[in-house]
Write a structure and sequence with these properties.
By secondary structure, this protein is an alpha/beta fold. About 45% of the residues lie in helices and about 15% in strands. It is built from 16 helices and eleven strands. The strands form two sheets. The chain has a seven-stranded mixed sheet, with helices on both faces. Strands 8-9-11-10 form a four-stranded antiparallel sheet. Strand 10 and strand 11 form a beta hairpin.
């Protein structure tokens, strides 16, 4: 008579232990999240200080650790030594505060652990991702019949349509013959376009020299006449223009290009029109956004958006949308005999990954939780708060407001006695150096976190609000924090400055 023995697997936890650990961890997280607004945005520690605090650098342990103690200590270490984009005064870069339901969605997704590459391995997850993509398209005014998938973030959300265009536009079999099989490909982008375009050009084989950087006007929108001229010159030289990228919310200032005009040019020239809406694309759902944003999205061949930006999803969550799903299959599908694909959507054929996590669940849960109306309210509130910040900055004699678009406000600190001389070279250099030091001071200080931009040679502070935890009081308190730090730095730096 055979005797059944249970495998001794060190990873295994019985249901009672798992339940107890989970409840305790959720209680810890809830308490820590509640305390974030009352603490620092960041501890401002050096890498060496972080490594020392976390006790890193030792060898891999031979024996394991009690899971309860391990989770408790790790939670404390993470919350004590991290920067918090959930802090209401985190205005740096374009990373949003994560929605609580999205956090729980991450736990739920990992508990099922589907591989969302093929329907057979992930039936529920695949269909939820298909619906999530459709809902995102509907929210921003892109055709709901579009194809798309969830990816890691803005780089990949732009890469996917870039590669689709690279296959769709040439008149030779580029996947088999490579980029050397025909004319030199050319892509056209604004000078304000994110560096993803360089990575895509490099990795796709067309080379970074194939990217035409088109200048912007004083409004920081792409110069349409210069764009048309560059396309004509490349055609005359025997090259093959294939892609134009419109910016829907530039990284530095949030400016939106004249997207309908770009769409008209692309239609005339028979070029693929892609919109980088990683930051600003979701603002198309609100009335406060520039009218050309939603109008342009409706005309595009493809759009990139980031749910982990303005849908407040936990990182990672980007989304690539392509008007005709067949272009995705044409660009990415291979069918070896060990793939058993049916007529369902199989996301392995829509992008670069085979093994794919269930990123869509957290986004889907959040969309169902608050609906389109909830997102219109929160995004509209963020835009209104950025406007309130810009107005508050304008009331401070030592702060100079610079630009305001979508939810990005830029400004700089200028000592009162230098305001009348900012046009002088020596004064401009000093003010730039002062604001550079001011940005570093604010980022390390923990009271407020902003980033920077350079506008017309002027180094400015940049506040981007994509944070549903930010209140009116947070933006009203910001100018005083900046001025206090700016005055202290000016007093220190002025002695050695020739101004």
């Amino acid at each position: 008579m055979s005797q059944t023995t249970r495998r001794d697997a060190p990873h295994a936890l019985d249901s009672e232990t798992f339940r107890a650990l989970g409840h305790r961890l959720v209680d810890t997280i809830a308490a820590r999240l509640e305390a974030i607004p009352h603490g620092k945005v960041t501890p401002g520690e050096t890498p060496a200080q972080v490594r020392a605090a976390l006790g890193l650098g030792g060898p891999l342990p031979e024996q394991g650790t009690d899971p309860a103690a391990l989770l408790e200590r790790t939670a404390s270490l993470l919350f004590d030594h991290s920067l918090f984009n959930a802090h209401p005064k985190f205005f740096g870069y374009i990373t949003s505060s994560p929605a609580p339901l999205g956090m729980l969605g991450e736990l739920l997704a990992s508990s099922v652990n589907p591989n969302v590459g093929g329907f057979m391995l992930s039936p529920a997850a695949t269909e939820i991702e298909v619906e999530t993509v459709r809902w995102i398209a509907e929210l921003i005014g892109f055709p709901a019949t579009a194809g798309g998938l969830l990816v890691s973030g803005g780089n990949m959300a732009n890469f996917v349509p870039f590669f689709a265009a690279r296959v769709a536009q040439p008149d030779w079999k580029i996947r088999a013959e490579g980029v050397s099989g025909g004319k030199r490909l050319r892509a056209y982008v604004s000078a304000e376009t994110h560096t993803w375009i360089q990575k895509a050009a490099d990795l796709s084989g067309i080379g970074t020299d194939a990217v035409r950087w088109i200048p912007t006007g004083k409004d920081q929108k792409v110069d349409l006449a210069a764009l048309a001229q560059e396309i004509a010159q490349d055609r005359a030289a025997g090259d093959l223009p294939f892609l134009v990228v419109g910016t829907a919310g530039s990284v530095s200032t949030g400016v939106v290009d004249d997207l309908p005009a770009i769409a008209a040019l692309c239609k005339k020239e028979q070029l693929w029109f892609h919109i980088d809406g990683a930051y600003g694309g979701f603002a198309a759902c609100v009335d406060e956004a520039p009218p050309e944003l939603r109008a342009g999205i409706a005309l595009a061949d493809s759009v990139a958006v980031d749910p982990h930006k303005w849908l407040y999803a936990p990182i990672e969550a980007g989304c690539a949308l392509v008007r005709d799903p067949a272009h995705l299959v044409d660009a990415f599908a291979y069918r070896p005999p060990y793939y058993h694909l049916d007529e369902a959507v199989n996301f392995v054929e829509y992008g670069m990954q085979n093994s794919r996590g269930f990123r869509a669940l957290k986004v889907w849960l959040q969309l169902k939780h608050v609906g389109a109306a909830g997102y219109r309210k929160m995004i509209g509130d963020d835009i209104a708060l950025a406007r309130a910040l810009h107005e508050a900055v304008g009331r401070e004699p030592e702060l100079e407001p610079m630009t305001l678009a979508l939810s990005i406000s830029t400004f700089r600190f200028v000592p009162k006695d230098l305001r009348a001389r900012v046009g002088e070279k020596a004064v401009l250099e000093y003010v730039n150096a002062l604001n550079t030091a001011l940005n570093e001071t604010l980022q390390k200080g923990g009271e407020l976190f902003v980033s920077n931009a350079v506008i017309g040679g002027q180094y400015v502070l940049r506040a981007c609000i994509v944070n549903f935890r930010t209140e009116r009081s947070d933006v009203e308190e910001t100018p005083a924090i900046v001025v206090r730090a700016g005055r202290a730095l000016d007093a220190t730096m002025r002695a050695g400055a020739a101004v």
